[in-house]
What does this fold into?
Amino acid sequence: MDNEPGMRGRILLVDDDKSILRTFRYCLEDAGYAVTTAQNVEQARSQANTAVFDMCFLDLNLGTESGLDLLPQLREAAPWMRVVMATAQSDVSTAVKAIHAGAVDYLVKPCSPEQLRLCADKQVQARHVELRLQQLEAEAADAAEQGELVSANPAMSAVVEMARQVAATGANILILGESGTGKGLLARAIHHWSTRAKSGFVTINCPSLSAELLESELFGHQKGAFTGATESTAGRVNQANGGTLFLDEIGDFPLTLQPKLLRFIQDREYERVGDPVTRTADVRIVAATNHKLEDMVKEKTFREDLYYRLNVIRLVLPPLRERPEDVPALATTFLNRYARAYHRPARGFSDAALRSLQRYPWPGNVRELQNVIERASIIAEGAEVQESHLGVGAVPADRATRPRAGDHLSIAELERAHITALIANIESLDEAAKLLGIDVSTLYRKRKQYGI
It folds into this structure.
């Protein structure tokens, strides 16, 4: 979250002495900082869970409680926040304990206003450097990934151009396409192109959690709200405040939880599990699915009002088999990436290898191509990837000749081939899971395991 114009940073002061809090606050506010105070452990935890701070001055003795006990909780709630232990005890052992518990510095009271300001300046500047490095790393990663969205295919190019146009708006976006077509990549690109790029891009994988756990993951929960809830959590909505929340595989979002998601999208209001306090968050929603949501609406397995709220802007990614002209460029992008990452020699493809890549139907789409090229980059010994390195050259587009029982394959290879072919020809993951005799969450884990 950006600081307000003219403000140098946000600081949390935690001390049970009101006079110390008042003195420190005046000193730091005069230096241009925004300051929030807390007099006990509960107040400090609440502030760390509901606001963003660059640093914290934490007193060692908080009445009957210890700042050393609070320190790990603050680090868990806000791992980016730099904590300085402030205390009248100057013994070395206490300083060592504080550093081991996660403090970045140690300030002995009483201290001069200049000492306090210098300490604050050092830590806030360090935090700003960390943020800048993270931003540069994210921009570099985004630039590399967005190269995958450059396409020679008119349909794909039109989708990307539309995504660029609507990114600057606050409209909700629904991305449709088969598994592996790059829906998550396009969602991240939309965030990068938007005015929210400096804030978080947060992803929720809807099929991977039960309705109860998904609600907690999305909105957060209060300590003691359910068995195992030993600490309060803020939730992904809070984490995405000011940024983008990407709901991956929204077609698998539990029907029982859809009213709460609808309410949040409409009113930007929500409650954590086990906590009656109504909170708000400014979040842009991007959702994606390979399901046919219109059919799900007719079947009463997806709420019509939620569908319309998500489907403000609709982007449909074509499968890779419909844009074979993009395969060579994508394969080269992946090969260069993995050859550098694994320090391998291959930098190009033989003519036979390129023909195999373009002939193969890619039921797993771009994700499958990426996995094939990663493997090829590792096993290729020369400057070129050969057809034999791909493992797809002997597989024509005809389904009847794809891997089957009795072929010289491992169980894992056969399972991967079967799941890949099945989800490419089945309308919903629910139906695919039923045919496989497993639940949707197990199917999700297997897709992740096999890169499908």
About this structure: Residues 321-396 form a domain with the Helicase, Ruva Protein; domain 3 fold (CATH 1.10.8.60). Confidence is low (pLDDT under 50) at residues 1-6, 393-401.
